[in-house]
């Protein structure tokens, strides 16, 4: 997983969520560093061939430089790797010919943006789908009578709210690129009950924090069989690489210990929310936790890595439960450093959380600035991001 190309790029990632609110396609933004070698495309494809198998699902590549895009177009790619190309390139005769040749090789193309004029049918047929910005989505209105029929599947991007994203899916969008997180609830938001399943997990976290006997913890979990099943699925996920299969909660405590068990309960908390439109937030929260844990690995402190993971997983919990963090944390025990980070702009994990947010926003300049604040090189950040992207595909919350 340690590829030289990771020292020559700024990586960012995203996801495209389907009508079931599951991450159907992963997205990788590739921003070459100044002075990157001409064979950068070969390094990218070699990394993907080694690490991203078809079992990981489709992966869309979003190169930010024209030379890298052209180099990738000159090389065939497996069918589960998609290459995004800007709409203006399809409008250029020379660019259109490159696209036709790439599609003939069996490689998959995605059109990014709405063309100013309809594409020739043979060229339009080269694209698996088109990415349309929500502000330019003309499918909200019936097509004019003389307009050519729209046959290319479409993906909505930059949806400002979850309602807009959900409406696009209802109208037939293939997916939503980057699920909107919504605003963090403020102090004036009305109090509301925490879902019963989330209350069970909170209860378990409190008991684990007190290191109560395993049989008492097991009795709590047996009261909610669905949660028990989810916990066992998470613990036995390939992403955590346990050498033995955990068969019960008591077995989990014996194998993992109380402190390591908290990380699985943190994951279970995100999966205890019932709203379908919050499922994407669960996936994003898990990926944040994985990234922040890896960024903390250099500290050489197991407890710091665990806290960084929990901080990332809980960082969207206020939006999921519709309550501000200061209220949630009054009944949810977390380490002081995690609480400081979640409630305010300070805290020991604030910088790594800011870096995770910048990577999700696919903003190379913000990633570089956030990495600089942590005194991390591009390669160090890229390796952590690549591991998190791979691991998150192995443990998607349901």
TrEMBL record:
<dbReference type="InterPro" id="IPR013976">
    <property type="entry name" value="HDOD"/>
</dbReference>
<feature type="domain" description="HDOD">
    <location>
        <begin position="194"/>
        <end position="380"/>
    </location>
</feature>
<dbReference type="InterPro" id="IPR052340">
    <property type="entry name" value="RNase_Y/CdgJ"/>
</dbReference>
<dbReference type="Pfam" id="PF08668">
    <property type="entry name" value="HDOD"/>
</dbReference>
<protein>
    <recommendedName>
        <fullName>HDOD domain-containing protein</fullName>
    </recommendedName>
</protein>
